[in-house]
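cache lookup: miss for this entity combination. No prior model stored, computing from scratch. Input as submitted by user K.M.:
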Amino acid sequence: GAVVSQHPSRVICKSGTSVKIECRSLDFQATTMFWYRQFPKKSLMLMATSNEGSKATYEQGVEKDKFLINHASLTLSTLTVTSAHPEDSSFYICSASRQGTSYEQYFGPGTRLTVT
Amino acid sequence: EDQVTQSPEALRLQEGESSSLNCSYTVSGLRGLFWYRQDPGKGPEFLFTLYSAGEEKEKERLKATLTKKESFLHITAPKPEDSATYLCAVLSGSSNTGKLIFGQGTTLQVKP
């Protein structure tokens, strides 16, 4: 159990367009979902935390209007990168915590975003 | 300030050569310490959670231990398929969101 999927796995978009990334917990209900960004050979950088039905909590320095997060159900969260620019190119990873567990986070396989 | 430091940054081992990875932490009230494995281009894979000093957990060639200041990930007789980046993360007692604080990781390369 504790499988998290992400879609798409890779996406290339043009500068100025928006891209939506989906994160799903496949076999459990996720109280909380997290969105990370990872630069090459670097550790994970938390962007935001989202709870089902609530507004996301963004980390300092992360633009809320640029990275829109929606957590519509206990199994689905989406990250929309609006008006993408080349500097938004990165590896985006989501994770999910199960209800009633000890805060273990289970990660998705990641989405590689390239903005041209 | 809560902080996690992993060492070494990189480690090269011969197949069968046992070693340990270190994760030192300073946190206001540890609620949990987590080990993950990450392969290139993939999301982290959960390995272990440790909650209190003295606790140990094992999985195949991996054994994680915890003290009040650090955690070790012992790798016994590693194989090339153990090559990956190993990430350590802690959950602070001051967190009410479940936010994990990650170390920078140790990249392990096991040569045949």
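stored under new cache key. Chain B has a mean pLDDT of 95.
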